[in-house]
Design goal:
This protein is of the alpha+beta class. The protein has one domain. The chain is 47% helix and 17% strand. The strands form two sheets. It has a two-stranded antiparallel sheet with strand order 1-2. It has a two-stranded antiparallel sheet with strand order 3-4. The protein is elongated and about 80 Å long. This is Flagellar basal-body rod protein FlgC. It is found in: Bacterial flagellum basal body. Keywords: Bacterial flagellum, Cell projection, Cilium, Flagellum. Its main location: other. InterPro entries: Flag_bb_rod_N, Flagellar_basal_body_rod_CS, Flg_bb/hook_C_dom, FlgC.
Length: 139
């Protein structure tokens, strides 16, 4: 029975982590076409780092929760574009855009969404198993 509760904990932690990932991807996509007058002021794409949480009561690793270890900025350099008439152009006529690949971000969004859906399904199935277990106990 305690294994079922560990599965709930693991899936819930994965839902939380994937939710953070989805929000981060949405932020990257929303800022993909922003401009700045210097590389330092340019939005940097963000990536979520996950970390497995070791359960001391589960040495076999049946259910290992995950947590967000952090959100890091991309190390890709902003993309300079010569646009002297742009309102954000610097004195040399350049604007800087974040090095965000929208296709990669869409793939990340689809992956996070599918992972989220899979964990919802795990929770639903585990709940059904728990209910059946309780019904057997009542008989």
């Amino acid at each position: 029975m305690s294994d079922l509760f560990r599965i709930f904990n693991t899936s819930a932690s994965a839902l939380t982590a994937q939710s953070v990932r989805l929000n981060t991807v949405a932020s990257n996509m929303a800022n993909a076409s922003t401009t700045a007058s210097s590389p330092e002021a340019t939005y940097r794409g963000k990536q979520v780092l996950f970390q497995t949480v070791i359960d001391q009561e589960d040495p076999n690793g049946v259910a290992m929760p995950v947590r967000v270890a952090g959100i890091v900025d991309s190390e890709c350099e902003p993309i300079p574009t010569y646009e002297p008439n742009h309102p954000h152009a610097n004195k040399d006529g350049y604007v800087f855009r974040p090095a965000i690949n929208v296709v990669e971000e869409m793939a990340n969004m689809m992956s996070a969404s599918r992972s989220y859906e899979a964990n919802v399904e795990v929770l639903t199935t585990t709940r059904a198993l728990l209910q059946r277990t309780l019904q057997v106990g009542q008989s």
